[in-house]
Write a structure and sequence with these properties.
Blueprint lengths: L5 E10 L2 E7 L4 E5 L6 H11 L16 E8 L5 H6 L7 E8 L5 E5 L2 E3 L1 H8 L3 E5 L9 H8 L3 H36 L1 H12 L7 H13 L1 H16 L5 H18 L4 H27 L4 H21 L4 H67 L6 E13 L2 E10 L7 E2 H4 L2 H18 L4 E5 L7 H15 L4 E4 L3 H6 L2 E10 L2 E8 L2 H12 L6 H11 L1
Parallel strand pairs: 3-13, 3-14, 8-12, 12-13
Antiparallel strand pairs: 1-2, 1-4, 4-5, 5-6, 6-7, 9-10, 10-11, 14-15
Helix pairs in contact: 5-12, 6-12, 7-11, 9-10, 11-12, 12-14, 14-15, 17-18
Length: 554
């Protein structure tokens, strides 16, 4: 199984002792060798920066220009959704860049899109993984071990189906909590809202009713004044002598006669006729209002009280018109209706959640049983590798117990325990294993990983430190075994490990104008023989060392 994602090229400029380096990597096992202090760890540091690690301004090289680390990754389509969800342009050949200024500030880019450091970390998690004796925090993460256990095809498919239902379960639970809170809130205010609704409903308000009531109230309140003025009106209009109507009629007669004699008066007559129509209408209107003007004490009290009630509700509901109150009443009614609808929705969701929980429980139990069987095989496989690595007394235990409730892994809780000696009790691996043991444990797990699934580019930083002989040969074989399935970039001082690689790079240091400078080059076959011979004979290349190097490279 070839890796999905590959580190194709890395270019480092003005980083510590590196002025400029550009390297193309093979898709299998790449090895970096060089003398102590040549700058191999500098390369690893640059890769860590590319993966989003924090930066120190001291990494900027002597030129005091900005430090730039660029890489080209070949990326599989299965990461496209992740790129797009982060608003990053996706390309199967994607460019990553980290720039560090002399003041310590840095910028990151993916396909020329500026990204925050958190996003760079998020994306590169799927692309690159640096492992060393001092950098094995992944061994403390349960997700790492679940990923190993679930790399089994059958369990992996079961887990994917479980997660579909589990995510729906979580989503519906979230919706349920929101709806239920709304329902509880409406229910707790139900009686008060019902009172408010009835209070408005009992008034039986009409649109703009307060305007007509206000006018009626004014009329009733000023009844005596209005009555007195209307009496005066009747005297003017209907007195026997010189009444207003009589005068108007006389004027009409005069204009009729004058207009028949002279055309000069016709216009005046027409104007008068229009005035007379308006006058008659006014007289009729006044007469009607006069007839309707009746003082009723009970009506006055009713109007006054109704206006008071309406204004009181205006104040209570922050309304300005009766139309506003009618709208308030409708809203209250909708709340009653929605209360019933919400109750129905809440009850329906409860049933759906219960059904999903039951499905998840069944699926999780199946996964739990499969995992229990799977961890037995993993234990055997890992301890077999331990045995080859001269860790014969070391034991690993996957303590898988059922949990009280569902979680994203299913229905179980996992603890990975370790014992370096058969006479010692098991304890949490991360607490008791030494740096070297952790590196070899991680190596063993990565071997099993590589045979089941695609891995990111693995960077091994001297995980073979402190080993030699048979153990070194085993580590070399294991790295090659991983490299057959995934891309590896390793740093090693061991000739056995270097000889197993597909590509060999030498990191070395020169003096340029009395200033140290780190360089890196890909070795051809002859150069590789000499480099491995130098590693065998401590830089004093001898014919036996050359012969041994040739033998290792076969």
């Amino acid at each position: 199984m070839k890796p999905w994602n590959l580190l194709k090229t890395i270019e480092i400029k003005n980083y510590l002792l590196i002025e400029s380096i550009k390297v193309d990597f093979d898709d299998n096992f790449n090895i970096m060798t060089g003398e102590t202090g040549s700058g191999k760890s500098i390369i690893i540091g640059a890769l860590n920066l590319l993966a989003g690690s924090r930066v120190d301004h001291k990494v900027v090289g002597p030129s005091n220009k900005k430090c730039v680390i660029e890489a080209i990754f070949l990326i599989a389509e299965n990461l496209k959704d992740k790129f797009l969800s982060l608003d990053i342009d996706f390309d199967t050949e994607s460019y990553f860049r980290r720039e560090i200024l002399s003041n310590g500030k840095s910028r990151a880019f993916i396909n020329d899109t500026p990204v925050k450091l958190e996003i760079l970390k998020n994306v590169t998690l799927d692309l690159i993984n640096v492992q060393s004796q001092n950098q094995n925090l992944v061994l403390n993460e349960k997700s790492f071990y679940y990923k190993l256990i679930d790399s089994d095809l059958e369990i992996n498919l079961l887990r994917k189906k479980f997660l579909i239902n589990y995510n729906q379960y979580l989503s519906k639970q979230k919706t349920y909590e929101s709806l239920n809170n709304q329902f509880i809130n409406i229910k707790s205010n139900f009686d008060y809202n019902k009172f408010l609704y009835n209070e408005i409903d009992e008034l039986n308000l009409q649109n703009n009713e307060e305007e007509s009531l206000e006018q009626e109230f004014i009329n009733l309140k000023n009844y005596d004044k209005l009555k007195n003025e209307l009496n005066n009106y009747h005297q003017i209009v209907s007195s026997e002598h010189d009444s207003l109507i009589s005068l108007m009629n006389n004027l009409s007669s005069i204009l009729n006669k004058t207009s028949s004699i002279s055309n000069d008066f016709k216009t005046l007559k027409n104007r008068y006729d229009q005035l007379k129509i308006e006058f008659d209408d006014i007289i009729n209107s006044i007469n009607r209002k006069s007839e309707n003007l009746v003082y009723d004490p009970r009506r006055f009290e009713y109007v006054q009280n109704r206006i008071f009630k309406i204004k009181d509700l205006f104040l209570k509901h922050n309304a300005k018109t009766s139309n506003d109150l009618i709208q308030v009443k409708q809203n209250l009614f909708l709340q009653f209706s929605s209360s019933k609808d919400l109750q129905s929705d809440v009850e329906s969701l409860e049933n759906e959640i219960q059904e999903l929980e039951n499905k998840c429980q069944i699926q999780a139990n199946t996964i739990f049983l499969k995992r229990k069987h799977r961890v037995k095989d993993l234990k055997k496989d890992i301890e077999l590798i331990f045995n080859n690595l001269s860790m014969k007394e070391s034991r690993i235990k996957f303590d898988l117990e059922k949990s009280d409730k569902l979680n994203k892994y299913g229905i179980d809780n996992l603890n990975v325990l370790y014992s370096a000696d058969k006479g010692n009790n098991f304890n949490k691996l991360i607490k008791i294993a030494s740096g070297g043991e952790k590196s070899r444990i991680l190596l063993a797990i990565n071997v099993l990983f590589s045979e089941k699934m695609s891995l990111p580019t693995l960077i091994f930083d001297e995980i073979d430190s402190g080993t030699s002989g048979k153990v070194a040969n085993v580590i070399a074989d294991l790295l090659k075994r991983i490299g057959n399935k995934s891309q590896i970039i390793a740093i090693s001082h061991l000739p056995q490990v270097a000889a197993k690689a597909s590509n060999h790079y030498k990191v070395y240091k020169i003096l340029d104008q009395n200033k140290p400078k780190t360089l890196m080059k890909k070795l051809n076959h002859d150069e590789r023989i000499k480099e491995i011979a130098a590693m065998i004979s401590a830089d004093n290349i001898t014919n036996p060392a050359l012969d041994q190097a040739l033998e290792l490279l076969k």
